Amino acid sequence: MRFHVLTSRRPDHCDGTFDQFCDPNRQYTNISSIISAAGQTDLLNYMNTYWKDYQGNDESFWEHEWGKHGTCISTLKPGCYTNYAPQEEVVDYFQKTVDLFKTLNSYAFLSAAGIVPSTTQTYTAAEINAALAKPRGVQVSIQCSSSALDEIWYFFDVRGTVQTGDFVPTNPGSTTTPPSTTLSTATTAPPSPTPGNPFSGKGTLPVTTGGKVDGCIISGGTWYTTGTCATFTATASGTNVVPIRGIDSTKRL
Prior knowledge:
Order of helices and strands: HHHHHHEEEEEEEEEEE
Strand content: 15-25%
Radius of gyration: 20 Å
Mean pLDDT: 77
Structural class: alpha+beta
């Protein structure tokens, strides 16, 4: 299962799009050196043990997470610090992410409900969601790959700054009814799509299968049953709608 990063909602442009990286000037390429220079060896050791890249390039993975997510958190901007020391926001970002990760013992949550790793036993998405929701009192979002649990998304409201604020567990911004069987949540070519009513403006595109809403579009031809929907901007052209931009808000984390 993947180590989930600390993310925030990105600032949108007027047309509904957003930048992949919020501050090119702070896309650092020396995360290990920054953390070591700050004297946070325990943090770095923990990351080297648990925050792994599946291709073996941990440093590149950390650089990607910081550049794509860390630079987009407003309270980590240098201007939000008193007596700012260069790059101290990088240490704060990774320390807070690790601190939160340590409070989310997903394996224990699942084990308490009798859900354990197995090559023969299967579990429904509803069972997994219920087991993960019970300890925190709020829902999560899960992602499957090849009918196996691959990602768990935990959500918080932050009261205050990322550095010192309270992280209050909350429900995902939008959820759907989980399928009755354990299936991958990333799917292409939904069966027998039914055209909906044209629209113009900005919004999300739900997917309907078997007469029920079963997720939303995240990019051309791809949809999720859980997670964050992409925002699309469209203009009407006669009786048709021409998509202008589609935003995949659930790409690699």
